[in-house]
Amino acid sequence: MRKTTKRISALIVSFVMLLSLFTTVFAADDYTIKITKPESDNAAHKYSAYQIFTGDVSTNEAGEKILINLVYGEGVDAAALCTALGIADDSTADAAAAKINELVSGSPAEKTPEQIADIIAGCKTTASGNATLAANASATDTADIEVEGPGYYFIFDEITSGRDKGAFSDHILVVLDNETDFDVPVESKSDVPSLDKVIVDSELGEVSANTASIGDEVPFKLTTAVPEMEGYNKYYFVVNDTLCTGLTYNDDMTITVGGEELTEDTDYFVTATQPAVPGPTTLKIVFNDFINVYQPAGLANREASYGKAIVITYSATLNDDCDRTKTGNPNTADLLFSNDPNHTYTGTNEPGTGENNYVGETPEIVTKTYTTGIELHKVDENGDKLTGAEFELTGSKMNQVIFSRGEYQLDNTNGTYWKLKDETYTTTDPETVTDTSGYASTTDKYSLVTVTGTVGQGTSTVSVKGVVDEDGYLKFEGLGAGTYTITETKAPKGKSGEGKTYTFTIGNDPAATTSAPNWTYTGFDNSTVSNPDGPIIHIMTIVNPSGSSLPTTGGIGTVIFYVVGALLIAGAGTLTVLKVRKKTEQQ
Fold it and tell me: CA 563, CA 568: separation in Å to the nearest integer?
């Protein structure tokens, strides 16, 4: 707010210059005091004007407008005002005004204009007029108070609804003269802090939403500023931040004010409440002795702190409890602050509870981090499911991966698979074949079951392998935007494809919204996005055709040759026997 410590000669004009230069036009009709409130104030207000003195407007030798021939206005208890000022309760209006001037213009001054306003607040009686501003009032809306005649007015602010969504104005003192504008513009003397929060993404910049892989660090930045605190005896300044279950606080907070880094546990205190079971983590940041640090004694020094940027930074890691749907992983923050300069606050650095807990709260700021995944579907050339294929996923942004894959488990009761020595499995019962040398065991049986788990500890790039399940599916989740490679390390028995590599890219541009991700997948032609209301998974179908049976030169011709040869040998034998028998008979 505009302030000045300039010594003035006119006793009433001193308040105008110290609190803002507010002017009006004298007319036979009413004056209009137009009051505006800060855009960040979301409370409904009622403003009332009380006439303290009235009189004639004159100009002194310095050309300043002054009030002369003062009399008490209809809005003040004159005797109570005189007593509060420390003079006889039957003193004249001129005497009361002279005492006010003495208190604020002495060297050093005994009272500030704000303290004089507090004194007058206790002596007000009947309002000359009032007007209201709705909670959703725009920057151009005004509360128009109609008053009669020039004079010295006290303006009182009341919040009629949404007390925690705005701030009470400090008491306003204004002089109406008869020379300038008919309408008096008056800014509400309330300062409502604001809070902003962003994710500092290395590729997108400062955004409200981003993507990440499990194990990635997500950097956050909160910004606000030192507010005006005139009239307050204590000012609470508390930031509340909530991390969802899928984000783990890294205990790396830093805070700067005006570019100077603060010291934790001296300048501020951080309380991180992390549940024993998976759940949200709450961070409470409490500034120590905020008003005395940033509103130092002496008017010349106070304004130097107003508006200084307060920047809070920290990071959280996306963990394996993260949400993989379009809901995303939210982080919310708001700011709690003192909002009534006319209230006497007690306590230390945090407000108490109950009806006298006069504090405001900024609107909640939300950021979101999204993560996704892929699902492979293994089929043959006819589109029928295939089991037994194994794949390996690698990528530059993989720290941890959640998998859903098939796993062969020993199950001699219900198992339908047998393990072979080449680490593959078959459904052919060894009792039905004559040569069982290829079996790892002819008695152990296995079942193919679907299991889920996590690979990696979030500390370095990992790769993950998996076998497709009974239905031919293999799922990898917790992937952010990036380029990935899938290699088929084992093909099903009798199928081609082993060693084949597929490269695909996951993209997303959530910078403009926190409502839902905007995933894109490139690199697979035969693919679809599934589960729009569940995990946002991209299904990629991989076809394994059967191996071809080709003819060879040692086929049917050789068989015929052997058969014919056998017949010739048999014929020769028969002929020899007949010759021997005939020779015997002749002898």
Answer: 9
pTM, 2 dp: 0.73
- Please state the φ and ψ torsions of residue 26, each to the nearest 5 degrees: -80, 135
* Number of alpha carbons in the 13 Å side-chain half-sphere of residue 529: 15
Could you read off the pLDDT of 165-216 as tens digits, one per residue? 887 777 777 776 654 444 555 666 677 889 999 999 888 889 999 988 888 9
Is 114 in contact with 230 (CB distance < 8 Å)?
Answer: yes
Only one residue has tokens 């040398």, namely 437
Q: Helices (H) and strands (E) in the chain — how many of each?
A: 7, 35
DSSP sequence for 230-299: TT-S---EEEEEEE-TTEEE-S--EEEETTEEP-BTTTEEEEEE--SSS--EEEEEEETTHHHHHS-SSH
Angle between helices 78-85 and 93-105 (to 10 degrees): 30
- Output the six-digit token pair for 20: 């803002």
d(CA 115, CA 85): 11
Local structure of residue 349 (DSSP, 8 states): S
Closest to 128 (Cα-Cα) out of 70, 48, 183, 55: 48
222: helix, strand or coil = strand
Helix (H) or strand (E) holding 424: none
Which structural domains are found in the chain, ordered by start?
A: 13-187 (no CATH), 196-369 (2.60.40.740), 372-543 (2.60.40.10)
